[in-house]
């Protein structure tokens, strides 16, 4: 099953060029309200004995609005939508015509998108994650979040800022799979239409509720 990710809402953080990653993450969580961008994602699976790790690349668009709404649309190489309306998290796989839904309140420790879009402050985030700054690398300031609930799919999340702009999201799951999302063309907006985060179940789709 394609990974539950995604990520959410990422913004420019003016005036924080000299801040460390944790300060930039805190500023993002308290100041960002809505936004949209394009992204590319690279997923690397663990290497098997005698073989190199498999690498898959995808791309698409995302949007978010606080509190707790986000939407990822994967356009290449597969057609998939991940959308949260504030109460329900939905994943739609167009190839399978399959919809999977779960209560969004159960997802905050399991999806990076919920991590970034749902928590309203760094203090709120600390209720679910152990967060810290990491050393500067690749010209970016980094923050790390490790779920306190060790039973979820996510092992750790790293968030990278370049200057005053949040640029990279890295996710490692419990199976050793690593996903790297890079964001371009971010637009900060005061709000987005409510219909942005609505999802109509396609006719004939299989629906799985967890």
Give a description of the structure.
The model is unreliable at 1-18 (pLDDT under 50). Helix content is 10%, strand content 47%. It has three helices and twelve strands. The protein is globular, with a radius of gyration of 16 Å. Strands 7-8-9-10-11-1-2-3-4-5-6-12 form a twelve-stranded mixed β-sheet, with helices on one face. It has helices spanning 21-31, 112-118, 122-125, and strands spanning 34-44, 55-65, 69-76, 80-85, 88-93, 98-103, 129-137, 140-147, 154-162, 165-173, 178-189, 206-209. With 210 residues, it is mostly beta strands. It starts with 20 loop residues before the first helix and ends with a strand. A hairpin with a 4-residue loop joins strand 10 and strand 11 (178-189).
């Amino acid at each position: 099953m394609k990974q539950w990710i995604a990520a959410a809402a990422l913004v420019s953080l003016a005036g924080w060029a000299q801040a460390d990653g944790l300060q930039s993450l805190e500023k993002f969580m308290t100041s960002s309200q809505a936004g949209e961008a394009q992204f590319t994602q690279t997923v690397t699976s663990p290497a098997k004995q005698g073989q190199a790790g498999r690498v898959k690349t995808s791309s698409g668009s995302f949007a978010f609005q606080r509190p707790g709404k986000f939407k990822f649309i994967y356009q290449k190489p597969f057609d998939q939508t991940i959308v949260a309306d504030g109460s329900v998290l939905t994943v739609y796989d167009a190839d399978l015509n399959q919809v999977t839904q779960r209560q969004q309140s159960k997802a905050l420790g399991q999806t990076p998108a919920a991590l970034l879009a749902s928590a309203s402050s760094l203090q709120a985030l600390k209720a679910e994650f152990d967060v810290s700054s990491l050393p500067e690398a690749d010209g970016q300031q980094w923050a790390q979040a490790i779920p306190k609930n060790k039973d979820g799919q996510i092992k750790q999340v790293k968030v990278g800022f370049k200057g005053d702009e949040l640029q990279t999201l890295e996710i490692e799951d419990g199976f050793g799979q690593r996903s790297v999302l890079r964001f371009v063309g971010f637009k900060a907006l005061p709000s987005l239409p409510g219909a942005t985060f609505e999802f109509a179940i396609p006719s004939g789709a299989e629906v799985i509720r967890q």
